[in-house]
Amino acid sequence: PFQDFFATMSSDELKKDNKKNASKSQKNAANQMKSMSDKMKAAQEQMEQDQNEEDMQTLRQVMENLMNVSFAQEDLVKETQKTKSNNPQYPKLAQKQKKLQDDSKMIEDTLLALSKRNPAVSASINREISSIQMNMKKSIEHLAERQTGEAVVREQNSMTSINNLALMLNESLEQMQMQAQQKQSQKPGSGSCKKP
To answer: For the range 33-42, what are the long-range contacts, defined as Cβ-Cβ under 8 Å and sequence gap of 24 or more?
Structure first.
């Protein structure tokens, strides 16, 4: 389409026996195309930078939520160890575990969406969150059967996976920040000048 435009524009000028104007028109059109290309490239880079910043903010929020789940899981482990299986409050332990499972499911959903946009959030992170879900599910089952020992083991496994996940997310966040800094330092004019 652009070539047709240029050809039509140039042939009109040539028909007027004005080769100089045809050449000038082509140069102007080429300059305008380069300018448009540069603007589109800059807009694309800005969009990528904005998306990366949004992803880092999301990751920070997920990490905060994950730490809250970790502390609550730790409290549940202690409470389960102290509560006798014949205690009327025992079924509430399963309810607390179910709430933590629901909270971790929201974290999982956010991480899955994030991993589709950002390769720094790796498949190993998704495997760890699956381990959290599986252990919490098993813990709920053991609590329902009043099998305290097995429930505590699953709760502790969940807590270990939560903490592993937090470490992995921290590494991913650091990697994303380093990549953002590298891109920023590669932009023209972003370097620092040293006086001789």
So the answer is: 33/2
User: For residues 162 and 130, what is the distance between their CA atoms, to the nearest angstrom?
Assistant: 10
Query: 89-142: per-residue pLDDT in tens?
Result: 989 999 999 999 999 888 888 888 777 776 666 777 878 888 999 999 999 999
Residue stretches of the chain with pLDDT short of 50? 190-192, 196
Residue pair 59/162 in contact by the 8 Å Cβ criterion: no
The span from the CA of 105 to the CA of 86, in Å, is 30
Residue type, 100: L
The amino acid occupying position 107 is: I
